[in-house]
Design brief:
Largest sheet: none
Strand content: under 5%
Order of helices and strands: HHHHHHHHHH
Radius of gyration: 20 Å
Distance between the termini: 27 Å
Structural class: mainly alpha
Helix content: over 70%
Oligomer: single chain
Number of strands: 0
Length: 279
């Protein structure tokens, strides 16, 4: 069995991971899976009479961190087949989604029995507990090699966000006074910062086609900052100006903002944890 697993990894899995074309397929696969999960989650939320609003978005943030750190457990190489196959793409996304759904159902059941409890706080608590458990497991499996990485990533992202906020505030724009809008930019600036730290300082490489091309042309991952801002500031503007003010439109807008936060915060968290542990 060990020999079969070695052959699978040597002749099937590893060459695919080394193929840049696989990254495109992986991105498309992730987008399709995300769409399916989003559709399923919306149906489930309606079934349990959970409103998709800002409070619900905040309660989901711990699950983004938990899902990203969950993926790093496989990155450590500590898991053996066939268990490790559950933690690779795209299986890991389904696992994270179903765990989140389980906690959602449990949280709704708890608050339906005890109406004094706030659903969002209960739901967020389970997400925080899951994230904390993942961190404990990772610290058991690996040592902290570069403790400065989280501070560098968060500090750099915060600085760029603050400067961006000042520019918009001086221009008289209220777009970044919205907390969800700030969260979108922060999530993607964290992703950009993790790329800068990894590529420019630690010898990692960018696996996505367009960012990798731009980094190759400019010679630095700092290009990720203007790239992120040039993409997501217009996206935020469109979301805030092109939706009607009725309930369904606001719900859709809030949910789209959450999805955009996921796309930035999840890779930022995974990258930062991996670099901190030297993986």
């Amino acid at each position: 069995m060990d020999e079969i697993n070695r052959l699978i990894n040597e002749y099937y899995i590893e060459p695919i991971l080394q193929d840049s074309g696989y990254n495109v397929v992986n991105t498309i696969t992730w987008a399709i899976i995300l769409g399916i999960c989003v559709f399923g989650l919306v149906k489930l939320l309606r079934r349990f009479d959970v409103s998709i609003d800002e409070k619900f978005t905040w309660s989901l943030i711990p699950y983004i961190l938990a899902g990203a750190s969950f993926r790093v457990i496989e990155d450590t190489g500590a898991l053996e087949p066939p268990l490790s196959y559950l933690f690779i793409t795209p299986n890991i996304y389904f696992m994270a989604f179903f765990i989140t759904v389980i906690f959602l159902v449990i949280s709704r059941l708890i608050t339906s029995v005890d109406s004094r409890r706030d659903f969002h706080k209960v739901f967020a608590f389970f997400g925080i507990a899951w994230f904390a458990a993942n961190i404990v497991i990772l610290l058991y499996l690996e040592n902290v090699v570069l403790p400065w990485v989280p501070f560098a990533v968060i500090g750099a992202a915060s600085l760029v966000l603050y400067l961006t906020y000042l520019v918009f505030d001086r221009a008289g724009s209220s777009m970044l006074k919205d907390r969800l809008n700030l969260s979108i930019l922060m999530a993607h600036l964290l992703d950009a910062s993790s790329t800068v730290v990894g590529v420019d300082f630690l010898g990692y490489y960018e696996k996505h086609v367009v960012p990798a091309y731009l980094i190759d042309i400019t010679g630095t991952a700092l290009i990720m900052y203007p790239l992120k801002l040039s993409i997501f500031i217009p996206v935020i503007y469109i979301l805030d100006t092109q939706f009607e003010e009725d309930k369904d439109s606001r719900t859709l807008k809030e949910f789209l903002k959450f999805v955009i936060i996921v796309l930035g915060l999840a890779p930022a968290c995974r990258n930062t944890i991996r670099m901190t542990l030297g993986i």
